[in-house]
Design goal:
- The complex is a heterodimer.
- Chain A contains five helices and two strands.
- Chain A is mainly α.
- Chain A has one domain: DsrC protein, C-terminal domain (Arc Repressor Mutant, subunit A, Orthogonal Bundle), CATH 1.10.10.
- The radius of gyration of chain A is 13 Å and the shape is globular.
- The two termini of chain A are 21 Å apart.
- The relative contact order of chain A is 0.18.
- Chain B is an alpha/beta fold.
- Classes of the chains: A mainly alpha, B alpha/beta.
């Protein structure tokens, strides 16, 4: 299974998480977000970029609790709260945002 | 829920690579952190190698998960006990270990070290004080 990014095939698993993390691009994120029926706003991108930086530093996708807490610290409580995060990513901020960010499924996320 | 808090100790005795124990232990700790228990980690024997800095796994073709220990503070896992004798027996000192910190919510988010070096005797006492000891 693969996403088609301007004619280039990007492999993904049965749930839509890309296989090779270095295949990620903004164009790919747009394609995945459309598949997830999410219209990307600046706030969506802020979360996605945050996740990519977190993964780069710690080699894991954070749990939702940790994500919300960290976003609260870096972007403020208006974005960093559970309710708003679920408004941005209705099927789970960690799960959906990680998929769009090109990260593996978060540890412990079923 | 506070009346149900138990003291959990995850004991790590194996080198980080070569077996799956170290990574599995770390994943269990990260998942288990969601349950708001009193969590401590112990590093004994070759387990002390899990915390060494400058790990490079390129040649063995597995992921270097040592940066993930630095995320433990975010998960409120802030007590990492390292046995002094195990370090000495392997020619290691605290300088060979990663600097791991957490931010203390009760102290204006002051950054504090997570690693505590303890003697073999103190480690024994620590184990004796736990409700649950999980060995990896």
């Amino acid at each position: 299974m693969a996403y088609d990014v301007n004619g280039t095939a990007v492999e993904h698993d049965e749930e839509g998480y890309i296989t090779n993390l270095s295949d990620w691009s903004k164009e790919l994120a747009d394609i995945i977000s459309k598949a997830e029926e999410i219209e990307m706003t600046d706030e969506h991108w802020a979360v996605v970029n945050f996740l990519r930086e977190y993964y780069d530093e710690y080699q894991i996708a954070p749990a939702v609790r940790v994500l919300v807490k960290s976003i609260k610290k870096s972007l403020g409580p208006d974005i960093g709260n559970n309710k708003y995060m679920y408004e941005l990513f209705p099927y789970g901020p960690a799960k959906q945002a990680c998929k769009i960010a090109g990260l593996p499924k978060p540890t412990g996320c079923v | 829920m506070s009346e149900q808090v138990k003291k959990f100790l995850y004991v790590n005795r194996k080198a980080p690579y070569g077996t799956i124990y170290a990574l599995e232990s770390l994943e269990v700790v990260l998942i288990g952190a969601a349950f708001d228990q009193d969590v401590s980690l112990a590093f004994i024997d070759d387990g002390v190698f899990q915390l060494t800095k400058g790990q490079d796994t390129k040649e063995i073709g597995v992921k270097n998960f040592s940066p993930t220990y630095r995320a433990l503070g975010d998960y409120e896992v802030t007590k990492l006990y390292v046995e002094k004798e195990s370090l000495i027996e392997r020619g290691l000192s605290t300088d060979d270990l990663q600097e791991l910190t957490y931010e203390d919510e009760d102290d204006d988010w002051a950054e504090k070290p997570s690693i505590r070096i303890v003697s073999r005797k103190e480690m024994g006492e620590l184990m004796g004080n736990q409700d649950v000891v999980l060995s990896f």
